[in-house]
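Tokens in:
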């Protein structure tokens, strides 16, 4: 049986007495970190330079850090409401501030997107790894402690502990320990908000060396709010939804495009006519035979490293219902808003049993039980995001050409490889066609880039808001033509010229007229009727924002766009100075502390926000 603690400092002392002063500690990816245990070990190592502490982790979660007056005033109350009781990880602040002691090392294989750019200690200690290789790398470094947030349940007077949100690498290293190929102490911190997930991560107490449980160390789970789905992301999600076959298998990556895809599948299931109409308006040149638009009679089976609220929406809509050994959804970790955790906690036993948390070696690979996995993962669609893509079909998903790491490879390569290994499977990589870089608009489809995550020989399907490029088995010239067809029209000519100069595209090639109208305005027009009818809500699976905040969000997006153009910003300012806000607008201005401006800056922001509110109402 484990030793039980209510004080994390006492537990840290016990770990050091038991393991020694050379600590190699594994921290689960994302939500599953035992923050109080980690902070106690960190504090102990800070106080004693003879203790060598190596933290092996991924996806260190941090509260948002607002910039600028308006962003600060809007997001700070949201942070307080959603993250107020979440204990910060002390090592993260030290890394940002370049004050990590010499005896402490933090190594990660996946970053919170963009958070660790230009932080030398984080960048230098990053391990580039497929998610399925991470457990092996942990063990190779001499892993001797694993700390994990767990859920607790007492059955017939006996406690059991669920690995819940993070079975991913923990189950894989536990398998190695049981086989005698690893030796480490598994330490639990109990959290009352964490859902108890049945299955392979439901463990007896004797798997753990120590358990921390106390009201003083209980805390609200990290719960990032859902973000509104833009027109571009909805267009991408709808295009992706038209590739999913009834009776097939589904994996979804992180972010709003996954939510857009799920809502697209729900629209298709409930109103196939409306779904077909909107997809046809989005991509009028796409052959109807290349679209899947019918309802889901057999339904889908889900196998995804990450579970999101979108999957719960698909279960509720009776789309995720093709069971494999009684299970409709296999996953390896989860993270989401408070409503997602609540839905899992409140699911009846017969429903939660249909969701099984598994090791990442199960979800992300077909090796091991390969015959059964091949039978289960029929017509699979592995749908993930990428940042940029080349005209020749390489994907840039995790880093920049100067070597800086934005996020990580994670499971993307795993799923691309599965798509080529499984009969009928496809890898679908999604990206917005453009991005803002300061005041400049940049194409996310490039001729070349100095870093690649997925090489061109594994090119399959790419989707932007402007359509679908099916590249598998195509020649380089045909691949370039396919990528040009889904590029933003403001960049098509230059991209085509570079490809022709390189001798990879015939000089005589002209981009078809049907793909020459790839502009945001066309996408907005194509979606407008479905948006107006409530078929494509900005928050399809609920949100954590108040009504006033929901009114502010589109206005602040308008203001953000205007800041890229001095002329647009001046026009917005003038419009705001000459109008009188109504009572609804005054409530929004009060939410930002602009109802009674005291400085010239506040008066200017009041006018800008007031005008943006009026424009958002007219949109």
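Residues out:
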């Amino acid at each position: 049986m484990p030793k039980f603690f209510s004080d994390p400092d006492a537990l840290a002392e016990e770990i050091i007495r038991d393991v020694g002063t050379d600590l190699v500690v594994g921290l689960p990816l994302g939500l599953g970190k035992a923050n109080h245990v980690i902070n106690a070990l960190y504090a102990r190592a800070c106080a004693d330079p003879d203790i060598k502490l190596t933290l092996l982790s991924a996806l260190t979660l941090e509260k948002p850090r607002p910039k600028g007056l308006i962003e600060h005033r809007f997001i700070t109350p949201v942070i307080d409401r959603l993250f107020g009781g979440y204990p910060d990880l002390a090592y993260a602040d030290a890394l940002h501030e370049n004050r990590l002691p010499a005896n402490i090392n933090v190594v990660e294989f996946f970053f919170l997107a963009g958070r660790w750019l230009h932080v030398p200690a984080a960048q230098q200690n990053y391990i580039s790894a497929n998610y399925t290789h991470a457990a092996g790398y942990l063990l190779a470094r001499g892993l001797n402690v694993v700390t994990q947030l767990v859920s607790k349940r007492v059955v017939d007077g006996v406690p059991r502990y669920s690995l819940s949100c993070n079975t991913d690498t923990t189950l894989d290293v536990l398998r190695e320990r049981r086989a005698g190929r690893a030796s480490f102490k598994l330490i639990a911190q109990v959290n009352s908000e964490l859902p108890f997930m049945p299955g392979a991560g439901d463990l007896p107490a004797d798997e753990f060396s120590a358990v921390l449980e106390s009201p003083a160390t209980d805390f609200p789970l990290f719960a990032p709010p859902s973000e509104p789905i833009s027109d571009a992301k909805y267009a991408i999600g709808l295009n992706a939804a038209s590739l999913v076959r009834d009776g097939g298998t589904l994996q979804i990556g992180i972010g709003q495009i996954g939510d857009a895809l799920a809502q697209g599948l729900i629209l298709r299931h409930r109103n196939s006519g409306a779904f077909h109409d909107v997809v046809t308006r989005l991509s009028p040149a796409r052959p109807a035979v290349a679209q899947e638009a019918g309802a889901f009679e057999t339904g889908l089976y889900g196998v995804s490293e990450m579970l999101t609220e979108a999957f719960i929406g698909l279960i509720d809509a009776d789309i995720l219902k093709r069971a494999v050994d009684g299970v409709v959804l296999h996953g390896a970790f989860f993270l989401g808003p408070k409503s997602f955790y609540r839905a899992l906690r409140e699911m009846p036993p017969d429903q939660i049993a249909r969701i099984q948390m598994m090791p990442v070696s199960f979800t992300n690979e077909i090796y091991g039980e390969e015959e059964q996995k091949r039978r289960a993962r029929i017509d699979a669609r592995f749908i993930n995001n990428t940042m940029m893509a080349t005209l020749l079909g390489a994907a840039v998903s995790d880093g920049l050409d100067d070597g800086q790491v934005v996020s990580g490879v994670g499971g993307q390569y795993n799923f691309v490889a599965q798509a080529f290994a499984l009969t009928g499977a496809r890898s679908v990589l999604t990206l917005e066609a453009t991005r803002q870089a300061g005041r400049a608009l940049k194409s996310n489809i490039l001729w070349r880039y100095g870093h690649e995550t997925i090489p061109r020989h594994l090119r399959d399907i790419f989707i932007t808001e402007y359509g679908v490029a099916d590249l598998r088995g195509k020649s380089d010239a045909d691949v370039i033509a396919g990528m040009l067809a889904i590029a933003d029209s403001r960049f098509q000519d230059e991209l085509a010229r570079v490809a022709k100069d390189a001798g990879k595209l015939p000089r005589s090639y002209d981009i078809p007229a049907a793909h020459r109208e790839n502009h945001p305005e066309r996408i907005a027009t194509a979606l407008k009727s479905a948006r107006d009818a409530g078929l494509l809500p900005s928050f399809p699976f609920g949100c954590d924002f108040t009504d006033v905040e929901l009114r502010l969000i589109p206005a602040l997006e308008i203001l953000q766009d205007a800041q890229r153009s001095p002329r647009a910003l001046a026009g917005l300012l003038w419009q705001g100075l000459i109008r009188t806000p109504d009572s609804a607008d005054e409530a929004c201005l009060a939410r930002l502390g602009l109802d009674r401006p005291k400085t010239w800056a506040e008066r200017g922001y009041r006018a800008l926000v007031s005008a943006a509110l009026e424009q958002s109402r007219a949109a």
